[in-house]
């Protein structure tokens, strides 16, 4: 049996930081329940110190949801940790996620500090969080640009202080997959107590590498992945859950499994898009409008002969009813016949060829060809019969 990859959803925290995507408590509860249905293991419900509304959302989500672990974010600051702990008081399983910047940029320019002080603050924060909850996740912010040796040092110290999960964020989406994978490998090889904690990925998408980096992390030993639905998040977004889950499902050599009920992916994606007022790009992998739409003649003919000629995923697996054969000026006769058949019009040979020529003339001047257009094109054949 393969090892489990823990799915940590941060749609309600990192995802919700996107301008215009804010949700109220009621809406967040709807999302949290949908995430529970989807089968996520951990819901990062918010950053409670950030506002009374966010505090209240974490509190209410903790009451409304029972299976997933509920996680609250805090900086490595006592007050943050106390408020996070308070917001989790009704959670059946609560986790505090605390941490600090670890790259030279963050240490020098953001925190105006030095490496020794950063390690000390990290240890203090983890120990303090541990005095409230058993499950403490430590994040090493901007780990993607950190010095490996320092990263290993702070991760080791955080685990010694009681961290159950160590999160290695590529906060700025800087890494290439090989680099991110190498960071995880380095930690596995150089942190003496690494087996006492789960390593987590948390990748941003600034270079479009978030999914690839997450998978590289998993291939090198990470066993938790931090993800959002539709990949929403700061700037270019976080790693998209649907992409990671389906990549793992398609590639058995990535020897992990998740508990995600994949057939709920599409409806969850729609829900988030609607509530957050954030459209999904049509060509978005897995959940975009065109993800299972075939429009060129060669592809349409191939997919009509055998679905797997051009589809690596059965759309039903992610909750999409069926793939679509779109009629455009690039469509072939097979696609036209498919649509005519579905309208109950069976044409073959010369008749089909003739209608196809008329169809191409129409398709060159009109983007969307629908059933009405088709029926008018075949009108004379219907009249003759
Ligand atoms: O990207 C990041 O580093 C974060 C941390 C707060 C976990 O979101
Ligand atoms: Zn982030």
Automatic annotation (TrEMBL):
The keyword rRNA-binding belongs to this UniProt entry's keyword annotation: no
Residues bound to Mn(2+): 14, 202, 204, 238
Organism per entry: Arthrospiribacter ruber
Domain of life: Bacteria
Catalytic activity: 3-methyl-2-oxobutanoate + acetyl-CoA + H2O = (2S)-2-isopropylmalate + CoA + H(+)
Family as reported in the entry's similarity comment: Belongs to the alpha-IPM synthase/homocitrate synthase family. LeuA type 1 subfamily.
EC number: 2.3.3.13
Record key words, sorted: Acyltransferase, Amino-acid biosynthesis, Branched-chain amino acid biosynthesis, Cytoplasm, Leucine biosynthesis, Manganese, Metal-binding, Transferase
GO cellular component term, pick one: cytoplasm
Keyword field contains Aminoacyl-tRNA synthetase: no
Protein name: 2-isopropylmalate synthase
Main EC class the enzyme belongs to: transferase
Pathway, per record: Amino-acid biosynthesis; L-leucine biosynthesis; L-leucine from 3-methyl-2-oxobutanoate: step 1/4
A single BP term in Gene Ontology: L-leucine biosynthetic process
Domain Pyruvate carboxyltransferase per the UniProt entry, residue ranges: 5-266
Function: Catalyzes the condensation of the acetyl group of acetyl-CoA with 3-methyl-2-oxobutanoate (2-ketoisovalerate) to form 3-carboxy-3-hydroxy-4-methylpentanoate (2-isopropylmalate).
Signal peptide range: none
GO molecular function annotations of the record: 2-isopropylmalate synthase activity; acetyl-CoA C-acetyltransferase activity; manganese ion binding
Cofactor(s) needed for function: Mn(2+)
Lineage per the UniProt record: Bacteria, Pseudomonadati, Bacteroidota, Cytophagia, Cytophagales
Subunit structure: Homodimer.
